[in-house]
Amino acid sequence: MHITKEDVLKKLAKLNPNKAQGPDNIPSSILKQCATELAAPLATLMNRSLQEGVIPSEWKLAHVSPIFKKGKKDTPGNYRPDDLNRLQLWSDAWQLRFNAEKCKVMYIGKNRNPCEYKMTSKGERITLESVSVSLEKDLGVNIDSDLKFSKHVSIQVNKANNLLALIRRGFTMLDKVSLSTLYKSMIRPHLEYGNVVWYPRLKGDEEQLEKVQRLATN
């Protein structure tokens, strides 16, 4: 992938000058007016970022403005994030409606200030349930509130070990080809499913996963 000066020019030309400035405090009107001068250096920065696989920390910042609902303005629960409303509008437009009764709220990180979130279901506003525990399973991946995924690794390793023990008990003799086939079809899927999300970043989690393979080959 390569970003050209013309690509950047097109994006800058589409900026809305009436929008508020971002965390860099540069008004969009200035970016639009100086598009010709800024296009080349911005394209260079973006290509460098793509080549090195590094995103500048400043690019990860954003302003999120909550929308006031009602009541006292100094109460966090009386505000709702705009993103949730946009998400529901998108789902309604594409007829991929969320089941609000099954939606939950999980607070990520150490500083968790509980707020009230609502979604519309069958014409009624429903308050979403807050996840009281630190683990929630979604699409086969166990998500914890710290995003370390150590609990997910432990759960999947236990499943893999149980299946490995089942194979050992069920087969008195196994050659390398048969063991490899059983391992790839029954055990490895549990260890690799969704790993683009939970790929282990802790040494202990890596060792747990590698231990399963060592046990299978012993």
Describe this protein's structure.
By secondary structure, the protein is mainly alpha-helical. The chain has three domains: 5-58, no CATH class; 67-132, no CATH class; 138-217, no CATH class. The protein contains eight helices and eight strands. The chain has helices spanning 5-13, 28-33, 35-52, 82-93, 150-170, 176-192, 195-198, 203-217; strands at residues 67-68, 79-80, 104-105, 118-121, 124-127, 129-130, 135-138, 141-144. It has a two-stranded antiparallel sheet. β4 (118-121) and β5 form a beta hairpin. α5 (150-170) packs antiparallel against α6 and α5 (150-170) packs parallel to α8. The chain is extended.
Q: What does this entry show, briefly?
A:
The chain is mainly α. The chain has helices at residues 5-13, 28-33, 35-52, 82-93, 150-170, 176-192, 195-198, 203-217; strands spanning 67-68, 79-80, 104-105, 118-121, 124-127, 129-130, 135-138, 141-144. It is built from 8 helices and 8 strands.
DSSP strand count: 8
What's the end-to-end separation, in Å?
44 Å
Poorly predicted spans:
none
> What is the helix fraction of residues, given as a range?
40-55%
Order of helices and strands: HHHEEHEEEEEEHHHH
C-alpha-based Rg, rounded: 25 Å
Number of domains: 3
Strand content: 5-15%
Mean pLDDT: 80
Helical run tally: 8
Give the strand order, joined by hyphens, for the main sheet.
Answer: 1-2
Helix/strand structural class: mainly alpha
Largest sheet: 2 strands, antiparallel
Shape: extended
Summarize this structure as a short list of keywords or feature phrases.
mainly alpha, two-stranded antiparallel sheet, two-stranded parallel ribbon, 218 residues
